Amino acid sequence: MTAFTVTLVLVVASAGLLRWRRPAWYWLTFGVTLATIRVLVRYASVMDACGLTVPPSRWRLALARMTSRPVPESRPPRILSLRPTCTGLVLRLKLRPGQDAFDFAAASDRLRHSFSMYGVTSRELRSGVIELRMTGYDVLKRVQMPTRLDTRPMRILVALREDGSVHYRDYRAIPHALTLGATESGKSVYQRNLVAGLAPMDVALVGIDCKQGVELFPLARRFSALADNPNTAAELLDALVSRMEDIYQLIRAEQRITADVPDAEIAADIWDLPDHLRPTPIVVLVDEVAELALFATKEEEKRRDRIITALVRLAQLGRAAGIYLEICGQRFGSELGKGITMLRAQLTGRTAHRVNDETSANMAFGDISPDAVLAAIQIPAEMRGIAIAGDSTGGWHRIRAPHTSLRQAANICNRHADRTPDLPELAPFRPVLTGTSATPVPLSKAAPVTA
């Protein structure tokens, strides 16, 4: 064999090995160039085959008849830009008159096959302009988070989307969220990523873990308050409601509604207050909400109603006071009793990992997106961590959080333990640590509040 043949065989073999073992490296070395050429060469024929072209206009047909020229062909959307990324290609198109963004969303699977890409998703940027994000490999199989992140206050990175973009949890945009998932679906890992992302921020963490604290108590150094049983949880939620009412009094006292104050500077929540007056925001993480709603006796029923009422009040009124809810559970439906549906209606963010039945998926997405329900019940059991994330607008994404062990999350919390604020209202619920050890001991039941 000639030297050229040997070189070609080595290159092909290297490309095949990279594509099998390191798909990200293959994409950056070989895939991005081949995919760009393939898209540009096939573009017009693929758009025509997928029904994404428009017939020529009347004046072009008339001009062709007058000049005895061939009838002009149908026109595909105009390419505004084609940008390679570390996971795929981003194709920005200008729609022709008569085309609709929904046509491209419906044809995304056909485009994926035609361009030989792993996945294609579309979204409308503005009127007449859409963006096709094409991925060259399965980015969710081995999650690698990008190094450049757009971090802001109360906005953390939690997962990677199937189109290669980053999925953020923005508490100021979506204050309250619901996370569902069966056992061993990856729900706990998702929760650890939330805690790890919040740990370096100036925020108070409050946890309710009725599994005797096995999930949240290893992270106790970064928590301002923790409850490991429903009785303590009821007292803790009452304390949060009381703090919320005090914060509203502070906001009213500092609203600055005099005639010379511009409308944009009138305080309506804690983020409009000056830095030296702004209360510390609080994120409340409930590990298993069903344990707070179940009851067997009359006394437990009274406690349950007290807990759900407090959660509903925090969900309805807590945003302006800087109190945000993260509700987790395996199921979250009307069978948990009165008030549950009202609480779910206030939880704008929805995330569903693998569920055991379609009803559980309907609990998360049935009222916002039927397509998301179908995607949630199709998550395979062997792909732990895969989830569907949506919101009340009807949009949804397939995501996967990077694997974070309990040890890694505990180390992050211990490293930022000095950021744990000491809030007077929550002092009775501060987790107690034995000496210098990071091992938390169970909380004793808080003393009941007396009139």
TrEMBL record:
Residues 163-362 form the FtsK domain. PROSITE patterns: FTSK. Coiled coil: none annotated. The keyword Cell inner membrane does not apply. It holds the Pfam family FtsK_SpoIIIE. Keywords: ATP-binding, Nucleotide-binding. This is Conjugal transfer protein TraS. It comes from Streptomyces filipinensis.
